[in-house]
């Protein structure tokens, strides 16, 4: 295929640009997903994605929907670049003399890509979740304070949320737990990202091929976009139970009457027993709405090859 001739720097730039555009477009939905997934059977703040976003805007303002976005915008470039470039790398080395990859080899390439990306994904998700969920916990504390005031004659000042930054969280984790603190939930992240890539990349490749009139010619951009959307949303829903577990394990703060977990098995057991099997699908539609355009945009940018144009212009500019 023609995309194999794209240079590695171009692949990395394309992946980075795609990630930045995608995150900017869908981050509020991702914030709603995190808050919905972290809700347990204690004090529930939100009933749906729209309810979460409306309440977030009312209590935290418009930019409240973008809490944690700076972390994603900073780290999504290397994360998406590694994911897309690693998949191409493994596909290239698993192919025999340029022949079509078998489904098993496509899945192995996706597995390799998912494994590589967790180097960046785990600390990125770790920091993002703390910032995204801080508003939910603060709102829950304020609600509990108001309820306490109504049930007693005393009047207490409502708690003021102290906003922390990603830098402060990083410093504290490094000081108290070392580099391992940033990689809390690594196992759960692997459990989510490796199966995701195993499903996503083969499915995208085969859907995209349906729109190719010639094997040596790229599919139209809208085919790549739709293929990315369908493959992304399918893979996202398929691994959502793992995403719920990962989100719970990586949350450092808990709301009122919410459980803590010692590991993947403990988390799975408590969710199943106390919240039921449907709890593993919390935020699934949000995640599908996030991943579909994110990977649709990523694949369009990646296959259009914006970076190749920029890199080709550099020598001319210097001349």
What does this protein look like?
The two termini are 32 Å apart. The mean pLDDT is 82. It is elongated, with a radius of gyration of 21 Å. It has helices at 8-38, 49-60, 69-94, 103-150, 166-177, 186-209, 221-238, 240-250, 264-275, 284-304, 306-318. Helices cover 71% and strands 0% of the residues. By secondary structure, the protein is mainly alpha-helical.
At a glance:
With 319 residues, this protein is mainly α. Helices cover 71% and strands 0% of the residues.
Keywords:
319 residues; 11 helices; mainly alpha
- Element order, helices and strands? HHHHHHHHHHH
Strand fraction? under 5%
First-last Cα distance: 32 Å
Biggest sheet overview: none
Rounded mean pLDDT score = 82
Stretches with pLDDT under 50, minimum 5 residues: none
Based on DSSP secondary structure assignment, what is the total number of beta strands? 0
Task: Give the helix tally.
Answer: 11
Oligomer: single chain
Q: Tell me the helix content.
A: over 70%
Structural class: mainly alpha
Shape: elongated
Q: Topology, please?
A:
Elements lengths: L7 H31 L10 H12 L8 H26 L8 H48 L15 H12 L8 H24 L11 H18 L1 H11 L13 H12 L8 H21 L1 H13 L1
């Amino acid at each position: 295929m023609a995309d194999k001739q794209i240079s590695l720097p171009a692949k990395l730039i394309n992946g980075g640009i795609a990630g930045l555009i995608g995150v900017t477009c869908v981050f509020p939905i991702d914030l709603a997903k995190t808050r919905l997934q972290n809700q347990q059977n204690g004090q529930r703040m939100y009933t749906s994605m729209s309810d979460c976003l409306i309440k977030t805007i009312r209590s935290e303002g418009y930019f409240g929907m973008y809490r944690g976005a700076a972390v994603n915008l900073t780290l999504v470039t290397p994360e998406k670049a590694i994911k897309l470039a690693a998949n191409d790398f493994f596909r290239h080395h698993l192919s025999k003399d340029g022949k079509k990859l078998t489904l098993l080899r496509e899945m192995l390439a996706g597995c390799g890509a998912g494994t590589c990306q967790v180097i960046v994904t785990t600390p990125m998700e770790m920091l993002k979740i703390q910032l995204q969920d801080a508003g939910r916990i603060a709102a829950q504390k304020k609600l509990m304070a108001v309820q306490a005031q109504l049930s007693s004659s005393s009047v207490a000042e409502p708690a003021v949320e102290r906003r922390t930054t990603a830098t402060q969280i990083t410093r504290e984790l490094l000081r108290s737990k070392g580099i391992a603190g940033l990689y809390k939930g690594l196992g759960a992240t692997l459990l989510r990202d490796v199966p995701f890539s195993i499903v996503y990349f083969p499915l995208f490749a085969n859907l995209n091929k349906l729109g190719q009139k010639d094997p040596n010619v790229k599919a139209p951009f809208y085919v790549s976009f739709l293929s990315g959307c369908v493959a992304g949303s399918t893979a996202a829903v398929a691994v959502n139970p793992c995403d719920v577990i990962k989100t719970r394990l990586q949350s450092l703060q808990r709301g009122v009457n919410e459980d803590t977990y010692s590991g993947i098995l403990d988390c799975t057991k408590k969710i199943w027993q106390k919240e039921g099997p449907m709890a593993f699908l919390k935020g699934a539609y949000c995640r599908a709405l996030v991943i579909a355009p994110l990977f649709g945009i990523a694949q369009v940018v990646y296959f259009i090859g914006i970076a190749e144009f920029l890199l080709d212009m550099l020598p001319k500019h210097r001349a």
